[in-house]
Amino acid sequence: MSIDWTPLADLIETHDRFLLTTHVRPDGDALGSEVGMAGLLRQRGKDVRVVNSSRTPPRYDFLDPQEDFFEHFGSLANPADLADREVAIILDLSAWSQLGDMADLIRDFKGPRVVIDHHVSQDDLGALFLKDTTAEATGTLVVQATKALGGTFTKEVATGLLTAIAMDTGWFHHPNTKPSTLRTVADLVEAGAPINEIYSQLFERSSLGRLRLMGETLTGLKTVAGGRIAYATVTRDSVERSGAIPQDTEDLVDFTVSLKGVEVGMLFFEQSRGGIKLSLRSRQGMDCARLAGLFGGGGHRAAAGATLPDPLDESIERVLAAVQQTLNIA
């Protein structure tokens, strides 16, 4: 699917002050895409602020070595500070619920809103949608925009965009990895992205708390339906007991589908502010986005998520019933 980037080019030509934001609990695709888009805009002489509702996870601090790129809404930025922004660009999401504390600001934003995303699910954000659900990552779309608009892949930009693509393809082993993915990555490496260093930063700097949480989570892994379904839970107590932080739960759901014979894997995370964050993965074709949609969430066919209002035990029961029905398990 080809995107016409002309509307974005027109906005860049006619406006000077841009606001970038992404979803709550930002991952590598979200943050790396922000790095890439900010680079493109700043090359055009634009004033750019990158403000997110969640703090940047320590895992991604290498994308902001001076600690002055990503701003946290509520502590480093507030609505009054951002009143001068002329265009808002929303990256890697298409749902109001995923904006977190930034949602009200975006609803009230007076200027043009642009969404650059690759997820299937979509709310009416009152925005210009530049979207391709066949893209493996939003970072891929920012690569395309940079090329279409004559931007330069500096080392910083290339590092952000390679991080984006690498994380949303599971370091190039998920089914969404295509020949074009690897060609794009080769271009980014040639532009200066240090692929070995990026891997080390992402996967070889786990905190003791994360490793302890990982061990406890895997110890509690359960299977049902003859091993076709696997799920694990992370409670507030387990996070505190292990010395981990909520961001340390990223990627834990992938272990649920690493077990032989598992078709659907789930992680239920008890959030500190209430509610259960559900993460879904499939390996045999079940549509995770469709299933997540039953609970007000969304995502991709092989990976999706939702936030559930019920307590942990009730959430597990509801989701397991839906998964078994989807798989036609009596």
TrEMBL record:
Q: Which residues form the DDH domain?
A: 18-165
Q: What InterPro entries does its record include?
A: DDH_dom, DHH_sf, DHHA1_dom, Oligoribo/pAp-PDE_c-di-AMP_PDE
Domain DHHA1 per the UniProt entry, residue ranges: 229-327
UniProt GO MF annotations: nucleic acid binding
Q: Which Pfam families match?
A: DHH (PF01368), DHHA1 (PF02272)
Where on the tree of life does the source sit, at the highest rank? Bacteria
Q: What is this protein called?
A: Exopolyphosphatase-like enzyme
